[in-house]
């Protein structure tokens, strides 16, 4: 700088800044208040959202938006406080770059937020290429022409990039967001529409917080009043928080509390240093607004939580009542229903073995049918009672070393007769190996019986192929059938209580939905796994049981 | 996940921005290479008034 310039600067009597941002050149503490508040809130929101899901693109983008916004706020504060023309020229240039960058990131953010995936490469080029002229021409006079010292002005004279291009670019970005949101709104579902409205409204409000400062300042020449723009930042945080609570996008309750505490703490701290009574009033109004907005969000959130807890307690009482009813129903089934079945079983058996005298062929046939139906009834009751006992943990397993090959062979022999009676081919393949597993032989038998029984019941033609293998400390039993197959939808319910395929009743009228559920409970109690694979309806299924082998 | 093409694009973009910032810093802060607009006449007048 030449001597004349130095003299001019000295005559202007500007205060020297400390740590770039503290000096008497900043008139009104409100400027510190608005800038620090916005900066802290932006960083709290940004870091919190990022910490929730470090890999999520939406989270990363929001983090960068908040980080660059905080940077912008800091740079703006430097320009208010600093007295060195070279610093002002440099930091002013940085603002020219950071401000439209926040806009560009907001366009990227809204795409990813609505589409729930990254945007195409072409769109990225489209969004960010608008910034290239600013980057390339930043050090030239097209960005900043000179430093204005006349009348002790402490600001640069802007070139066409700063005066026109940046505002045009920011307007384009704003319309881009609006048009895209408008288009997405009409294609979206009802729930998504609410999210689109909120996120668009929040982002537009946030972006306007930049321009409003310049507009208000230029029109009114009151740059303290222009700080109102920055107070849009808590409003944006509110919208974000509302979305988080409402749509579980992020975790808003915590973020809302953190932001409120940080903002209130800073507000109180700010008031201590304020000298002018007018500024105290402005800060008090801003703080009051913040308390009303954020406090309302938190109260609603707490109210909702209390309501949910009350509903949960009510449901718990109902659940306990249902459990008691279920226990009493089980008792009734076990003693009364099963007792009646057992009684009629002996009556039918008596008729058949001639206890009640000679019978003709028709009576014999009918009695045999009655006896079979009785047996099925007793089996079904046993299955349901077993499942209930297994589920409640009432079964005590006697864990010993069990040869799983014997278990499978016994089930195979038992189920061979009903399968062949149905015209099905049934085969078994057991490789030479040691199949000893730790377990309860009775319940493992029950599980394998149920699994093979299930395949026999749901296979009309073709066959059942059982295979037993040992691989790396695990024993794998597979039961493949050429039956009705399983749809992906049915697969989800198959091993659940009362769960069965949608067409299972059509094929097996005695389907209880408890057979495979019992298998799952027994195998999991043996630290094993059970699952099914099927290529779909009509294409058969393969059921697997995997158990840890004794080493 | 951001694809490889985008990563390269952002890398070039960020590099360009950093280079531009360094040149700007060099120009304004190190070399003081900027014109200062000063209305000397008005300034002298104001001094006389004082």
UniProtKB/TrEMBL annotation, chain A:
Gene Ontology MF term list: phosphorelay sensor kinase activity
Protein keywords: Coiled coil, Membrane, Phosphoprotein, Transmembrane, Transmembrane helix
Stretches of the chain forming a coiled coil according to its record: 302-332
SMART domains for the chain: HATPase_c
EC numbers on record: 2.7.13.3
Catalysed reactions listed for this entry: ATP + protein L-histidine = ADP + protein N-phospho-L-histidine
Family matches, as InterPro entries: HATPase_C_sf, HATPase_dom, His_kinase_dom, Sig_transdc_His_kin-like_C
Pfam families assigned to the protein according to its UniProt record, in alphabetical order: HATPase_c
TM spans (from-to): 30-49, 61-81, 87-113, 125-144, 164-185, 197-219, 225-245, 254-274, 280-299
Domain Histidine kinase: 332-551
Record-given protein name: histidine kinase
Species the sequence originates in: Candidatus Nomurabacteria bacterium RIFCSPHIGHO2_01_FULL_42_15
Upper taxonomic lineage: Bacteria, Candidatus Nomuraibacteriota
């Amino acid at each position: 700088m030449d001597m004349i310039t130095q003299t001019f600067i000295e005559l202007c009597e500007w205060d020297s800044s400390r740590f770039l941002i503290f000096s008497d050149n900043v008139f009104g503490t409100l400027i510190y208040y608005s800038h620090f508040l916005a900066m802290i809130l932006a960083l709290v929101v940004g870091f919190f959202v990022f910490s929730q899901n470090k890999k999520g693109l939406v989270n990363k983008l929001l983090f960068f938006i908040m980080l660059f916004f905080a940077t912008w706020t800091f740079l703006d504060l430097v320009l208010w406080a600093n007295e060195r023309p070279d610093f002002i020229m440099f930091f002013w240039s940085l603002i020219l770059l950071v401000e439209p960058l926040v806009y560009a990131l907001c366009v990227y953010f809204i795409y990813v937020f609505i589409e729930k995936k990254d945007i195409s490469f072409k769109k990225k080029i489209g969004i960010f290429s608008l910034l290239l002229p600013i980057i390339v021409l930043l050090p030239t006079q097209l960005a900043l022409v000179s430093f204005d010292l006349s009348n002790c002005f402490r600001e640069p004279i802007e070139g066409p990039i700063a005066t026109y291009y940046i505002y045009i670019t920011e307007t384009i970005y704003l319309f881009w967001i609006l048009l895209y949101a408008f288009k997405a709104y009409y294609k979206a579902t009802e729930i998504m529409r609410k999210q689109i409205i909120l996120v668009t409204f929040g982002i537009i409000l946030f972006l306007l917080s930049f321009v409003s400062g310049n507009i208000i300042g230029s029109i009114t020449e009151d740059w303290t009043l222009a700080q109102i723009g920055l107070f849009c930042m808590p409003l944006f945080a509110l919208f974000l928080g509302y979305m988080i609570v409402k749509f579980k996008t992020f975790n808003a309750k915590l973020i809302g509390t953190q932001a409120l505490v940080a903002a209130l703490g800073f507000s109180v701290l700010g008031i201590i240093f304020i000298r002018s009574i007018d500024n105290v009033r402005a800060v008090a109004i801003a703080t009051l607004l913040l308390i009303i907005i954020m406090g309302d969000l938190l109260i609603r959130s707490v109210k909702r939580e209390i309501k949910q807890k009350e509903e949960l307690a009510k449901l718990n009482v109902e659940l306990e009542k249902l459990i008691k009813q279920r226990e009493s129903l089980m008792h009734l089934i076990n003693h009364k229903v099963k007792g009646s079945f057992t009684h009629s079983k002996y009556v039918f058996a008596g008729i058949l073995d001639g206890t009640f005298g000679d019978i003709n062929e028709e009576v014999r046939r009918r009695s045999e049918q009655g006896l079979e139906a009785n047996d099925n009834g007793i089996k079904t009751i046993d299955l349901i009672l077993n499942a209930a006992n297994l589920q409640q943990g009432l079964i005590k397993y006697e864990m010993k070393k069990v040869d799983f090959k014997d278990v499978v062979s016994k089930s195979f022999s038992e189920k061979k007769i009903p399968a062949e009676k149905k015209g099905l081919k049934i085969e078994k393949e057991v490789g030479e190996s040691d199949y000893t597993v730790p377990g309860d032989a009775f319940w493992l038998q029950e599980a394998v019986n149920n699994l093979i029984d299930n395949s026999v019941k749901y296979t009309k033609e073709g066959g059942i192929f059982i295979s037993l293998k040992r691989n790396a400390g695990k024993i794998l039993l597979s039961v493949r059938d050429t039956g009705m197959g399983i749809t992906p939808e049915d697969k989800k319910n198959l091993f659940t209580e009362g769960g069965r395929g949608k067409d299972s009743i059509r094929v097996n009228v005695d389907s209880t939905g408890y057979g495979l559920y019992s298998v799952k409970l027994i195998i999991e109690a043996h630290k094993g796994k059970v699952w099914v694979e099927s290529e779909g309806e009509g294409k058969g299924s393969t059921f697997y049981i995997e158990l840890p082998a004794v080493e | 996940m951001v694809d490889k093409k985008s990563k390269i694009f952002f890398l070039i973009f960020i590099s360009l921005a950093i280079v531009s910032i360094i040149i700007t810093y060099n120009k304004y802060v190190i070399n003081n290479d900027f014109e200062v607009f000063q209305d000397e006449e008005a300034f002298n007048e104001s001094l006389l008034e004082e």
